[in-house]
Amino acid sequence: MRYEGSIYRPPGEWKSYLLQVTVGCSHNACTFCGMYKDKRYRVRSLEEIFEDIAMAKAVYGDVNRVFLCDGDAVAMDTGELLAVVERLYQTFPSLERVSAYAGPSSTLAKRGEELKALRQAGLARLYLGVESGSDAVLKAVCKGVDAAGMLEAGQRIVAAGFDLWVMVLIGLAGPGAASRAHALDTAAMVNAMRPRHLSALTYMPERGTVLGRAVERGEFQLLTAREALEETRLLLKHLEVSPLHFTSDHASNYLPLKGGLPEDREKLLSLIDQALSGERGVKPEAWRGL
Known about the structure:
CATH class: Alpha Beta
Oligomer: single chain
Shape: globular
Number of strands: 10
Strand content: 15-25%
CATH architecture: Alpha-Beta Barrel
Number of domains: 1
């Protein structure tokens, strides 16, 4: 398959055929993110994309799932994105789901009718990097939208019928009162957005990024393992979405957590409490990763 630059996908898409429809990220200004820095954003031509689909058909024969790379396939022209999705279902008889990352700004740029048309065509799941429900944090990390805009983007995705998977970042606000506000504001946003899935990753600085350099200069303080667990606990305690598939088992997390809410809430809180009390070990720093 043909790919330009580094390719990223959500962990849940490890079985998916990765089709690069855009190169890079349409926003690509978040201070914490080191992804897509090796390329400039552009939309690939339908001719190129269709050639890649034909190559995949020749190599794989048939596929069940497709993930549209890179960082924000929703930023494509709706008509062109519809043509890609339709070609995928025409090419692969066993195709069950097409998924993609969605940027908040590009989502807000789509009319509700466009989002519904994409969903009806078979674009089934969208991954939204919410990061935080805090206005202050979203502004500080240059996410491109405020909390109200982020919430509207998520609500529009849900209203169009997509299976929404939200990602948030533990530790993105730093320690102390900011950590508590970040957790509570994020829980409130998720409750109002009502995604089907929520993944809580833990912030780790990437060299060369704006926030990574701030960490190196001592201008931004990372959470300790204990503080990260306390922030995760506060978030988890205040989530009210039901049903919600909750995961916090990324390589960046100190304690792997996974379950359904509300039925597994007490079990997950108990696991965190055991780690906080020292009854259960947490991942050593050397074992954490992005």
